[in-house]
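Contributing new records

If you add data, match the layout below exactly. Sequence lines come first and carry their own label; structure lines follow with theirs. Keep one chain per record. Anything else will be rejected by the validation script.
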Amino acid sequence: MQIADRCVASFHYTLTNDKGEVLDSSSGREPLAYLHGAGNIVPGLEKAMSGRAMGDKFAVDVTPEEGYGVHDPNLVQVVPKSAFRGAGELRPGMQFRADSSRGPMSVVITAIRGEEVTVDGNHPLAGATLHFQIEVTEVRQASSEELTHGHVHGPGGHHH
């Protein structure tokens, strides 16, 4: 069976950056399962998975436009430290949920200078080319429940 819309594909992966550093991997864990065609993985990887079958091993490079997007400088802002009242000691790398004109979003503190805190609402991998090594471990038809919910369910059915 080939990977196509309305089926569940499971795969092992290793994700590296341009320097070859491992950013994420399923090594030592269960394969990642997703519902193909439902937008559950980045678009460039989903396109590369189309037509693949169990046992296929391949590499794919996903551009920022097909991955987590290009870095948007408008998502970097300087806000007063007072906006973080009750958050304890602030440090670069801390993540927060923020309300924005685009709705709720995650932001990361990237710098602190005096009473000013710089936050970045871009995905940490925005602007990066994603280098994947893939091994497809299973391809099956999605259940009607999975299709209705738009995502894969664990063994035995619904788990959320």
